[in-house]
Amino acid sequence: MVSLAYLALIVALIPLASILIETIFRGSSAINLSFFFEEIPPLGEPGGGIGPAIQGTLIVVALACVIGVPIGVFSGIYLAEFRQARIAFIARFLNDVLTNVPSIVLGIFGWTLIVVAIGWSVIAGAVALAIMMIPIVTRTTEEAIKLVPMTIREAAIALGVPQWKTTLTVVLSSAKKGITTGILLAVARISGETAPLLLTVLGSRFWFSGFTQPTAALPVAIFNFSQSPFTQIDWSRAWGASLILVLIILVINIIVRYVTREKYG
Amino acid sequence: MSYKIEIDNLNAWFGSKQVLRDITMKAKENVVTAIIGPSGCGKTTLIRCLNRMHELTPGARVTGRILLDGQDIYDEGIDPVTVRRRIGMVFQKPNPFPMMSIYDNTAAGLKLNGITDKHRLDEVVEKSLKAAHLWDEVKTELGKSGASLSGGQQQRLCIARALAIEPEVILMDEPTSALDPTAAAKIEQLIRVLAEDYTVIIVTHNMQQAARVSDYTAFLYLGKLVEYGSTRDIFENPKSELTEKYITGEFG
């Protein structure tokens, strides 16, 4: 039984390991200092970098967090605190449905909602990604708050702290780790999303030029490079950009782990 | 001597299940009143009614009156939050806030209610920890986690936390049942000292404890108040046969 479990584990690790090794192996050769800081050259042209794509991904994801995190966290609080309310049942169900909406659908939604009105833009991309992260953040926030023991909540209420304040202070800070983990999961998920961005931020070869302007983004850049007929130059760029995307997600993970480390170890 | 708390015809339910029936009793100021009875007799529900914690359970309901200094705490227009600031509570299992230091745990009631004056907080923390007989053990490590203390120390921390908001009444729900005998003895001593300044109501399933710490004892059985009187009378001269059987250990 144990050996079977080991076997299954190894089989599961093979794709993961080969993706990582392949990305590092093929990606690292494309990476040098100018790769980070220079604008994206036209397809097939040597030199340049993917600076705007890194910048664009960071900006779009950050803006998506600004929109999505408060909505997700407060929805999660509502679902956890008013579990019995009829609207909570409906919201929970819709939230689960939203989790499984294909990302291309969110892309076309963002396109219809914003791109048609103001054009390809950072805002449109951020909204599409925010809609994607909201259900993840909502769910994990709800679960994290439910895990806070009743005794902690009662301790605060017995001190004459109003219930809403108890939730926003003691309960929320007890659930902090779980909520942060949820946000992290959501960020990791949306950072690599390609379909919604193709339809909303369009992609660009140049640096950020405003929230209502198109922008470059790593997944979009990887997509474009991989479509290039100049396989020699652009495919290695695609691998380089992939490696950086993976590294960004890794760094976000490490930062959040560090921030949420046990205060009293 | 005046009555601090008067319970008048109190009935309590969880959903359709009635757990307290027509409880009427009065607790005097600055004495320790113990509530004893077998498991499931409603003792915990009774003290949770006293600071309006009972109603937090979904489906829970209360009828009757509870007067605090003559004012019904169940009156319409009375905010349960203000009741709970006057009637503090210590729970069965020590429940310090795990993510807070000893200092912050003690000051939690004040801080969460918006008091930030460092000088005042320092004062209250020291005073409360001293009153809870914990100061000497923790004064050099106030920044450590409350959860790092031993069970008995945690419970005294919870008592300090309750004292910090300067309540008039302190409710204790089997405060020593999760502790070892030495830690329990310390809490019992503390309860006697607290009674000099506070009205203490303690729920216990330990009859010896009731005999040691309380001035008055109420015996509850199946949600009804069987007998209430001075602790000496209850233990040496019970009027009800049921009380006698319980305190002699025939059931419980």
Question: What does it look like?
Answer:
- The complex is a heterodimer of chains A (265) and B (252).
- Chain A has helices at residues 2-28, 33-37, 51-81, 86-99, 103-118, 122-146, 150-158, 163-174, 176-191, 195-200, 218-226, 231-259.
- Chain A has a domain at 49-213 and 251-259: MetI-like fold.
- Chain A has 265 residues and is mainly α.
- Helix content of chain A is 75%, strand content 0%.
- With 252 residues, chain B is α/β, with parallel strands linked by helices.
- Chain B has helices spanning 43-50, 80-86, 102-112, 118-131, 135-138, 151-164, 181-194, 207-213, 231-236, 241-247; strands at 3-14, 17-28, 32-36, 60-68, 71-72, 87-90, 169-173, 199-203, 216-221, 224-230.
- In chain B, strands 6-7-8-3-9-10 form a 6-stranded mixed beta sheet, with helices on both faces. A 4-stranded antiparallel beta sheet of chain B has the order 2-1-4-5, with helices on one face.
- In chain B, a hairpin with a 2-residue loop joins strand 9 (216-221) and strand 10.
- The longest helix of chain B has 14 residues, at 118-131.
- The two termini of chain B are 33 Å apart.
- The interface between A and B is medium-sized, with 22 and 29 residues.
